[in-house]
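> example.struct
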């Protein structure tokens, strides 16, 4: 039995507790930010408002505090959204955390100091260079995992043995794990698929969307290679696998759909998706200055059009 701490009681962090508990681990969950999730997780029946299910009574809710880090864990899982990453990097450093870390969060950051795009694992390592860090990505709708529907994901660590050890701890009959050494590639693919699923969503009909799907894969390969990941990683669960699920449904492709109908980004957001977080939009805003400066628009025309649509509020025409 392992002791696992999940930081982030949103949909994904909470769903992740399901296979861990099925494998008889002692699972703790904490929520540093949202009152709604704190209320859900500390309630008697543990009804999760995002997942719309009751979580296991075996899941132990811990208030977020410094005492949390005085205890020892075999694994700490980070499942906050991208906006929580700087916060958690500071916290892990402050409390000198030595446990292995597994990051579920998807996204990229722009490092203003070094004028480069960096991944989440690189952000954490910048703060704590010796951190033992792995990433887990892939096509996983939290609601499906929470209901034990078959889900396949990929764990990446430069040391594949560590990735496999983690896989052994968390895999179940319904939670299947693949492995990769290409940490950077896996992180890049799992982030930029949010932008490409908007692009595919703009196709409206299957014929056009299919051709956008193919063109998106080519651009994802190019970007992944330019940012020091491996091209082939685009063909793994972190790339094409995750792109498929995001393009088939979800908030990014929904926004893409409105753009395809001729709405500008601002009007679509205001009129139809005012309260929704569109992760692809957030990522565009984060990485666009770098992409516009360092990339050739002829190599990644779809990405350039999407940046124009979001930053300049121009119609998305392709
Ligand atoms: N690796 C995977 O298999 C997988 C699958 C689905 C989603 N995800 C990723 O997991 C992350 C969380 O997704 P979710 O569906 O649980 O979202 P959610 O909105 O349900 O939960 C977001 C979590 O982040 C926290 N948070 C938000 N803003 C914060 C801030 N400023 N500071 C600190 N914490 C903050 C929230 O309190 C909550 O715990 C996203 O990056 C998403 O892309 C990963």
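> example.seq
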């Amino acid at each position: 039995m392992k002791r696992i701490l999940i930081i982030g009681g949103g949909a994904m962090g909470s769903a992740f507790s399901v296979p861990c508990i099925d494998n008889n681990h002692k699972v703790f969950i904490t929520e540093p930010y949202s009152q709604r999730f704190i209320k859900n997780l500390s309630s008697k029946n543990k009804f999760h408002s995002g997942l719309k299910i009751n979580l296991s009574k075996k899941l132990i809710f811990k208030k977020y505090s410094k005492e949390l880090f005085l205890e020892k864990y075999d694994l700490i899982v980070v499942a906050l959204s991208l906006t929580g990453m700087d916060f958690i990097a500071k916290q892990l450093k402050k409390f000198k955390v030595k446990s292995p870390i597994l990051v579920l969060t998807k996204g990229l950051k722009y490092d203003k100091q070094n004028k480069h795009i960096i991944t989440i694992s690189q952000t954490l390592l910048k703060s704590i260079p010796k951190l033992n860090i792995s990433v887990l990505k892939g096509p996983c709708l939290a609601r499906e995992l929470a209901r034990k529907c078959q889900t396949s994901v990929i764990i990446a660590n430069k040391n594949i043995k560590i990735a496999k050890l983690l896989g052994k701890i968390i895999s179940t009959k319904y939670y299947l794990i693949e492995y990769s050494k290409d940490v950077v590639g896996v992180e890049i693919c799992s982030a930029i698929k949010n932008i490409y699923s908007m692009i595919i969503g703009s196709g409206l009909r299957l014929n056009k969307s299919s051709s956008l799907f193919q063109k998106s894969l080519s651009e994802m390969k190019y970007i992944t290679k330019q940012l020091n990941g491996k091209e082939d990683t685009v063909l793994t669960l972190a790339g094409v696998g995750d792109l498929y699920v995001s393009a088939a449904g979800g908030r990014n492709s929904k926004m893409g759909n409105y753009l395809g109908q001729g709405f500008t980004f601002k009007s679509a957001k205001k009129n139809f998706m005012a309260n929704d977080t569109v992760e692809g939009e957030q990522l565009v805003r984060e990485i666009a200055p770098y992409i516009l400066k360092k990339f050739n628009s002829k190599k990644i025309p779809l990405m350039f059009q999407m940046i124009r649509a979001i930053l300049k509020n121009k119609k998305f025409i392709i």
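> remarks
The chain has two domains: 3-181, 193-311.
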